[in-house]
Amino acid sequence: MGGQAKDRAYELANDGKTRASDAIFSLGKIVDENATVIDEKIGPKYGDYARSAAQTMQEAAKKLDSRELGDLGEDAKEFVRK
């Protein structure tokens, strides 16, 4: 019973990780798609900020998606220790 609960918790955590990375990637895509509007309304400097933020979000999403849950847990422990 404990093993089944552990397996189910792992599945749920992995699903949550996937959903989070998909959401971050989608948000980055939306920001990137609207950068030209920002160029026109506010100025190209701010459009470039938006593009940079979009790229950072998409890269972070890909990195999150590629990491294993155990590695993410270790990173969190290390962060708390520091």
Overview of this structure, please?
It is a single chain. The chain has 82 residues and is mainly α. Helix content is 91%, strand content 0%. The protein has helices spanning 2-33, 35-41, 44-66, 69-81. α2 (35-41) packs antiparallel against α3. The protein starts with a helix and ends with a helix. 9% of the residues are buried.
Got a strand count?
Answer: 0
Shape: elongated
Indicate the structural class: mainly alpha
Radius of gyration: 18 Å
Report on the biggest sheet. Answer: none
Percentage of helical residues?
A: over 70%
Distance between the termini: 36 Å
Order of helices and strands: HHHH
What does the average pLDDT come to? 92
Show unreliable segments. none
What are the key terms here?
82 residues, mainly alpha, elongated
What is the secondary structure topology, with strand pairs?
Layout: H1 2-33, H2 35-41, H3 44-66, H4 69-81
Helix pairs in contact: 1-3, 2-3
Task: Produce a short descriptive summary.
Helices cover 91% and strands 0% of the residues. It has 82 residues and is mostly helical. The protein starts with a helix and ends with a helix.
